[in-house]
Amino acid sequence: MPTSKKELRIEYKSLRKELSFDEVEEKSLSIANTLITMPIWDKTYYHVFLPIEEQKEINTEYILHLLSGKDKEILISKSDFETREMTHFLLTDNTKIKKNEYNIPEPVDGIEVPASKIEVVFVPLLAFDSNGNRIGYGKGFYDKFLAKCKPETIKIGLSFFEAVSQIDDVFESDIKLDFCVTPEKIYDFR
């Protein structure tokens, strides 16, 4: 079993590539349906990533519907690849979304909200382990962002696949998840 971030990144990118678009939709819907059962809906500010469809990321549209149905404040981000910082904007009916050079859908502009206000973050990932460590694409955007959130901010990873037993090369700066939701179950790392 691969256990280094590099090996796991390769393996899980390839596993994701094998999913059909129908499977991506079906699994994304299962994840959203599982989220409904979690005790996280008493908050106001929720951060959601918009998926890179070409990478077969989880379709978060179902989560967006859930959040707007519950009248929550939804935040989406714009990434600065030079500083590796993310700026968070309120998603409104007027938000214009455009794909950046990496095919990441991002808000063009809008009402900026500081990370310290965000109460729940849905975190994208490629793989995660049974200790709540996650692997993203390796650019460190989310670790930087999550470090700016309040300690009580709920960090929920979303994954099509179940946990690996352990990721060997975890860094001090890696921020752990509180939960990870897959189509099959909820992992609680608190």
UniProtKB/TrEMBL annotation:
Reactions mediated catalytically: (6S)-5-formyl-5,6,7,8-tetrahydrofolate + ATP = (6R)-5,10-methenyltetrahydrofolate + ADP + phosphate
Molecular-function GO term, any one: 5-formyltetrahydrofolate cyclo-ligase activity
Needed co-factor(s): Mg(2+)
Annotated EC: 6.3.3.2
Coiled-coil residue windows: none
InterPro entries reported for this sequence: FTHF_cligase, FTHF_cligase-like_sf, NagB/RpiA_transferase-like
Enzyme superclass (EC): ligase
Pfam families assigned: 5-FTHF_cyc-lig (PF01812)
Family: Belongs to the 5-formyltetrahydrofolate cyclo-ligase family.
PANTHER family: 5-FORMYLTETRAHYDROFOLATE CYCLO-LIGASE (PTHR23407:SF1), ATPASE INHIBITOR/5-FORMYLTETRAHYDROFOLATE CYCLO-LIGASE (PTHR23407)
Protein name stated in the entry: 5-formyltetrahydrofolate cyclo-ligase
Species classification: Bacteria, Pseudomonadati, Bacteroidota, Flavobacteriia, Flavobacteriales
